[in-house]
Amino acid sequence: MASPIIKNEELAEEIDTIKAIYGDSIINLTTNSSSQSQSNPEVLPVTTTIVLQIPEHSNLSFLIGFDNEYPGTPPRVLGTASTSARGEGKKWVAILSDSVTTVWQPGYVCLYDVIVDAGERLEELRANDGEDASEEPDTATAPVDTEQTSVPLHVTLGLDHPPEWALSDPITEKRSVFVGRAAKVTSRETAEKYVDHLLATEKKVATATHNIIAWRIKQKGPSGTETVVQDFDDDGETAAGGRMLHLMQLMDVWDVVVVVTRWYGGVKLGPDRFRLINHAARDALLNAGFGKPESVDSNDKGKKKGKK
């Protein structure tokens, strides 16, 4: 049987972008359907159906439908395709539906943001379940050795809290994907720890082709003196870090670290890659509240801001 064809160009491009970041297995197309909404003429029929797997939750996948007007209309969570336990389907559907409601805006593709938001909700639920379990002593097992209890990574790194990144929209060009991140920092040491935390907690970022980094910080010393700290790391993408730092200088942003991740798609982009890297960096900076937004280029598709 031939693979279903996606006639919605924005949805097809969005799926290609997500697969480039997370791998082909994250989304599978199912047979297109136009019969699910025929009973209600006011609701457009579903024309494309996918099975979406949430990263880091391999036992959990969802059936999601789209009509021809997406992203003018929201994705529809039709049910679960697989769960880790029986009888929990409604709970997982409610979580994903809440994510769709939170991130979707008319005219803006949102599947990437849904994945990020749902992942955060599921991680929070997993953490809460772990806390509840820890409060109930198990008399059938030996006492827990508190010295062996795991410590959150940000605590190990000496951070007060996990980094709060603002993300750019994913940019796809000839199957290469670029995603920018920006976070407020007050010292070079904090910036380096934020990057270490990101690479340790985000496998897809750690295994990407390049992670271009730059920061500009007005760092205060013990005596109150202020030292300007600005630096970059190309991570193999020669001259990209310097150009990104130059962008930050032009935007006159301070006390911020920026990371632009590139997944190489197999086709060389030439000098155009620098424009795309800076586009992702600027988008992340604006989403984090740095700099002033300019008028949107008519050639650029508007997309929703990334999750922090």
TrEMBL record:
Q: Which GO terms describe its cellular component?
A: cytoplasm
Keyword Repressor listed: yes
Compartments where found = Cytoplasm
Belongs to which family? Belongs to the IMPACT family.
Q: Which GO biological process annotations does it have?
A: GCN2-mediated signaling; regulation of translational initiation
Every RWD domain range: 13-125
* Cross-referenced PROSITE patterns: RWD, UPF0029
The alphabetical list of record keywords is: Cytoplasm, Repressor, Stress response, Translation regulation
Q: Using the UniProt record, give the first listed, main subcellular location.
A: cytoplasm
Q: Which Pfam families match?
A: Impact_N (PF01205), RWD (PF05773)
| Classification via InterPro entries | Impact, Impact_N, Impact_N_sf, Ribosomal_Su5_D2-typ_SF, RWD_dom, UBQ-conjugating_enzyme/RWD, UPF0029_Impact_CS
Organism (species): Polytolypa hystricis (strain UAMH7299)
Magnesium found in the keyword field: no
The protein depicted here goes by the name RWD domain-containing protein
Give the highest taxon in the source lineage: Eukaryota
According to the record, the signal peptide region is none
